[in-house]
Amino acid sequence: MQQLIARDYRELSRLAADRVSAVVAEKPAAVLGLATGSTPIGLYAELVARSRAGELDLRQVTTFNLDEYLGLPRTHPASYWQFMQAHLFRHVPVRAERIHLPRGDAPDPEAECRAYEAAIAAAGGIDLQVLGIGGNGHIGFNEPGAPFDSVTRVVDLTAETRAANARFFARPDEVPRQAISMGIRTIMQARRILLLASGEGKAAAVAAALTGPVTTAVPASVLQRHPDVTVIMDAAAAGLLPAAAGSGR
Ligand code: F6R
């Protein structure tokens, strides 16, 4: 596992964009796993800037997002579909048919989950999966206790996660109680993983994930078992790591 500590969020975003760009340069038809939330917003802004500058060619990539709220249609302003349109897809030439997010309003969510797994497999698997981390150590919406062999499925959101995401909704009680999320196994099958963490609110989760025991109580700790993980964090998120960690830049 490679650990990089960025000076600030700007540098974190640039380093993350360097990783994504390198994967796409090596394989123009790369399959990218993408995350929503605050953390990758700077990465997406960098990718948009590089695409506009002609430095990054996203025309052949395929994307699969980690998750979507159950019950929200793609038109809902707080849906992850809208988030991805606003921060990335509206601004770059990724082909519409190669963009994948679970459908939150699928009439048969279980069938939607199975179809999502099948679509990832049909695309040849994920070359690079971008992850954020929850304050409770979740990855995707795999909350503490999620089995390591889980695949895309309907999951319950914890009160902590709903509260953390309430800022995107008009009222806290509008935050859905469930989501469709890639599973831990789905994530671990990605050939490379890029975990991003910013801010002191992530410091405890980062320390537990990177240096604690591998346990379902801290879903991100499973990443210790993946052969190709890069963690890019800012100093605040790295604040509870042992002093020697993070010098791998
Ligand atoms: C988002 C996702 C979540 C977030 C995590 C951190 O698609 O799956 O695991 O990455 O909740 O969110 P932020 O970046 O908002 O702190």
Gist of the model:
With 249 residues, the protein is α/β, with parallel strands linked by helices. The protein is built from seven helices and ten strands.
SS elements, strand count = 10
Overall pLDDT metric: 96
In the sheet with the most strands, the strands line up as 1-10-9-6-2-3-5
Low-confidence stretches: 245-249
User: What is the gyration radius calculated from CA atoms?
Assistant: 17 Å
Give the count of helical stretches: 7
C-alpha termini separation: 12 Å
Bound molecules: fructose -6-phosphate
Shape: globular
Assign a percent range to the helix content: 25-40%
Question: What is the structural class?
Answer: alpha/beta
Strand content is 15-25%
- Characterize the main sheet: 7 strands, parallel
Q: What is the H/E order?
A: EHEHEEHEHEEHEHEHE
What does this molecule look like?
The protein has 249 residues and is of the alpha/beta class. It is built from 7 helices and 10 strands. A 7-stranded parallel β-sheet has the order 1-10-9-6-2-3-5, with helices on one face. Strands 4-8-7 form a 3-stranded antiparallel β-sheet. The longest helix is centred in the first third of the chain and has 18 residues. The protein starts with a strand and ends in a 15-residue tail after the last strand. The relative contact order is 0.19. The C terminus is likely disordered. Fructose -6-phosphate binds next to loops.
